[in-house]
Structure to design on (145 residues):
């Protein structure tokens, strides 16, 4: 299989706790509140996450994400490009980011430091990062009731 990504991804042994909200639908801003998600991998081009929500794969639905990595808030926006239903309650999604170059540079710096710390951690985890160590489904089901 040929790799189609333009940016590296950081696979995570433990997912990151994050929030997600729908920012725009068909170019119009909306305010629908936030929901918890778990990020399974992250890179400059996008993320893979799981959620209890059943979301559509539409390029005109723009999502806003927020998590903490190494004490820094990461808040990219993007749209879902694929979906896979894990079971009746959980779905997995692939998101492509739409980020301005200045914001991309900030995220790149943080992600590069994060990747280095994950490689060199020697049994410890990077500080000030929202890792989740419990069962993914249990975690999401209790938060998004």
């Amino acid at each position: 299989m040929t790799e189609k990504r333009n940016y590296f991804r950081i696979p995570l042994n433990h997912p990151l706790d994050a929030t997600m909200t729908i920012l725009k639908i068909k170019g119009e801003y909306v305010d629908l509140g936030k929901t918890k998600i778990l990020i399974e991998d992250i890179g400059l081009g996008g993320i893979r996450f799981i959620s209890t929500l059943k979301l559509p794969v539409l390029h005109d639905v723009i999502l806003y994400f927020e998590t903490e990595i190494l004490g820094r808030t990461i808040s990219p926006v993007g749209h879902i490009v694929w979906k896979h239903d894990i079971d009746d309650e959980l779905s997995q999604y692939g998101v492509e980011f739409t980020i301005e170059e200045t914001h991309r540079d900030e995220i790149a710096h943080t992600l590069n430091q994060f990747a280095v710390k994950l490689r060199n951690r020697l049994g410890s985890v990077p500080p000030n990062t929202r890792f989740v160590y419990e069962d993914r489904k249990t975690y999401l089901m209790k938060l998004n009731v």
Q: What stands out?
A: The CA atoms of residues 25 and 61 lie 5 Å apart. The longest strand covers residues 9-25.
